[in-house]
Amino acid sequence: MTAPRPERRLNLLTGDWVLVSPQRVSRPWQGAASAPKPASDLIHDPSCYLCAGVTRAGGAVNPDYQGVYVFDNDYPALLPGLTAPGPETDPLLVSEPEAGVCRVICYAPDHSLTMAGMSRAQIEAVIDTWTEQFVELAGRPDVGAVTIFENRGEMMGASNPHPHGQIWAQQRLPNEQVAEDARQRAWFVANDVPLLAAYLEREFEVGERIVAQNDSFVALVPYWAAWPFETLVLPRRSVTGLDELSARERAGLADVLSRLTRAYDRLFDTPFPYTMGFHQRPVDGRPEEHITLHAHVYPPLLRSASVRKFMVGYEMLAMPQRDLTPEEAAARLRTLV
């Protein structure tokens, strides 16, 4: 049997390459280990700025909400008001004003929940809110792109354990979506089919990287995954945004997100940290039939609840690198769904 050898794989969405080094998967680890934080069983925390009825740091008081609650971030990274670039005077020090709005979405009043512990009906309510927010923000003149995301766990920089996510809607298309837009547009022009629709069809043919699926959505470990247990969530019908999903498809998305997050928690028997976010069509008024709605899930854990993958050194200076192959990662997750 031939020993595994390193190879690089192309990320179809960004054009970046990922180095896969399966021969290193059994290397010993004597580096940093982060003690996992146990799951909370506190339903309401009066010191939590996101709990119902609590006064937030900025002075606003949360209502006694019972379902999903949305508010403008008290400490936003973007400020509203359409802006225009000034005259460029220095080609070496280039900047532009950037407008937008940042919001927080509390998924539920129960402080102890994570998405893995929410019912499918609760997740559907969150998806409905994501959709409503996307439609509203897409109609603003100072918004050209809407990014919906969640940072779960201290390891991924979450400043609050309450179940919540964020929306950053900004004037111009951010870097990752610029790259994805260009790659998907080029593929569509050349092949007359959305890139991610063609890719999903190929993944069904191969079969080995599919993690969870139903009639509407699929979760898989992408061929080019950089993070150890990274997944990509794709609709089986190519749509450009959450607002194009039917009620049945939104229910299907809730089902896949529920099963996937529960599988993550079972992997190392710990509340699994991750960053998850949706990429949808830009809202600049151009035809966007080349775009396919999708979610990226980036979890950092590698070997256990305490050992994470670090993107440092070679990864920061050259290209992403992984030891565990995407196929092995998918096989492990698939047994837990």
CATH structural class? Alpha Beta
Radius of gyration: 20 Å
Based on the coordinates given, report the CATH architecture: 2-Layer Sandwich
Low-confidence spans: none
Strand content: 15-25%
CATH homologous superfamily assignment: HIT-like
Mean pLDDT: 93
Tell the overall outline: globular
Structural features, described:
The protein is α+β, with helices and mostly antiparallel strands and 337 residues long. It has one domain: 2-Layer Sandwich (HIT family, subunit A), CATH 3.30.428. It is 24% helix and 18% strand. The chain has a 9-stranded antiparallel sheet with strand order 3-4-6-5-10-11-9-8-7, sandwiched between helices. A 3-stranded mixed sheet has the order 1-2-12, with no helix packed on it. Helix 1 crosses helix 4. The radius of gyration is 20 Å and the shape is globular.
Keywords:
single chain, 337 residues, alpha+beta, HIT family, subunit A, nine-stranded antiparallel sheet, three-stranded mixed sheet, 6 helices, 24% helix
Task: Write the topology of this structure.
Layout: E1 7-10, E2 17-20, E3 69-72, E4 100-106, H1 120-138, E5 145-152, E6 164-170, H2 175-191, H3 195-206, E7 210-213, E8 217-220, E9 231-235, H4 247-267, E10 274-279, E11 294-298, H5 314-317, E12 321-322, H6 326-334
Parallel strand pairs: 2-12
Antiparallel strand pairs: 1-2, 3-4, 4-6, 5-6, 5-10, 7-8, 8-9, 9-11, 10-11
What's a quick, concise take on this entry?
This protein is α+β, with helices and mostly antiparallel strands and 337 residues long. The chain has a single domain (43-79, 98-334), classed as HIT-like (HIT family, subunit A, 2-Layer Sandwich).
